[in-house]
Amino acid sequence: MFKITFHQLFSFSRYQLMEQFPTSITPLQTGTTERDARYHVIRDSTMTRANVLHIVGDRKVGGIGSTLDLLQASPLAQTYEFQYLESDGNPKDCWRIIRAMQNVSIVAIHFSVRTANLPTLALMRSYASVSGIRMVLIEHHYSLKFQQVGARRPQQLRRALAIAARFVDRVIAVSPTQSKWLAEFIPDSKLSTIASCSPLKQFLDLPLKSEHQRPLKVVAFGRHTLPWKGFDVLIEAARLLVGLPIQIEIGGSGPDTEHLKQLSANVETVSIVGFVPDLGEFLASADIVVIPSRWEAWGLTCTEAKAAGKAIVASHADGLIDQSHDCGLSVPPNSSEALASALRCVCEGNRQQLQDWSRAARASVLNAEADYIYGWGELLHSLVQTWGVSSCAPQKSSEGGNRQKKEEIKEPKRLSGELSPNGICPIVPT
Predict the structure, then answer these.
(1) pLDDT digit string, tens, across residues 251-277
(2) How far is residue 270's CA from residue 274's CA, in Å, rounded to a whole number?
């Protein structure tokens, strides 16, 4: 079996790499096609389906898996063959990843970028350059607030992301606010925005709550990971609301569940309900949903809560900023006093305001699924147009007949530019 030492990684010839992992990629057949104006679904029966490999750390944990489920169930699956590989980019997985990349046209990287997995991205880039594979990095994990609060070495994080961006053809931000932060160190020509979304039908089907009785039921849910999700802030806020007619339930599970139970042991108004098998049923009886995260690149819990028609009290952080307009209150992250004040304001305020927020919340996400699929359709369509021509591949530039004309190799049309009000990039005319 072919082996390579870690120290040989960057000096290894991409052409030697091809000898071990040859490709048999055939360009898509051209011809008259009928494209769905909304999803870019290509229905030409003579066209080969383009294979898209999604590499994700753990598809079963977090919201990334649910966003991929939405893609798999969308009309895009008629045109693109979605494949999945679980890997966090560890250099030990290099050859497994390269083998999975054979005979695919697009690789979508969903795992978190770290200094430790940059060599893996470098090797993937080498293979992609000679095989015409397009690579795209979807940045689900990092944001400005993470840099300020969660990162141990903020500058090293920015450098790692900047280097990773050099290895891929496109970087996708999952929220407009995150995109602004990434634009500080990633070229604008590589940066696009597609707001994340998960399947929302079970939430949109819930009836809007017509009455809000006392005590008000406040819920929070998500993976119990501290300090990220900020459930400890919510528990501390509950301590400050003694005597207020309110009941708080925190759903979900994770490595810090036991710690949260200990923190809430002496707080009568807080219950840690653990894993929620039916999230729709859990949200149905709620009056308010709290998202106390210290950072969130996007925040699918907010999207799902709005689809359920719930008023929102969310941290003023990253992607949550883009989602909390006109449907609730926004509070500074990591401030139990500010969160307690907001909850007191809602509980003592006009019940009609809760109704108005609920209706506005649901109305704001009615097209969220379609916008997400549309954004991915436009991304994949633009990458397929240049399939087989890598923007990072070396080019011959001699004066003789081998020089390639600039118009023959073009960067894919950008998805970014002026963002629409809902943060989704406009369609690029073809």
Answers:
(1) 999 999 999 999 999 999 999 998 999
(2) 12
194 touches 376 (CB < 8 A): yes
- Strands (DSSP E) contained in 36-127 are 50-56, 80-86, 106-109
The DSSP 8-state label assigned to residue 146 in this structure reads: I
Residue 3 CB neighbour total at 10 angstroms: 7
∠ CA 138-139-142 to the nearest 5 degrees? 170
Query: 21 vs 16, 54, 182, CA distance in Å?
Result: 9, 19, 34
CA separation for the pair 200, 185 (Å, rounded): 34
Q: Report the predicted TM-score, pTM, of the whole model to 2 decimal places.
A: 0.80
Q: What span, in angstroms and rounded, lies between the C-alpha atoms of 29 and 27?
A: 6
Residues 6+ apart with CB under 8 A from 249: 217, 218, 219, 220, 270, 271, 273, 282, 286
CB of 120 closer than 8 Å to CB of 145: no
pLDDT of residue 20: 53
Give the relative orientation of helices 94-101 and 118-131 as an angle to the nearest 10 degrees. 30
The answer to whether 362 and 399 have CB atoms below 8 angstroms apart is no
| 298 close to 195: Cβ distance less than 8 angstroms | yes
- Contact between 376 and 73 under an 8 Å Cβ cutoff? The reply is no
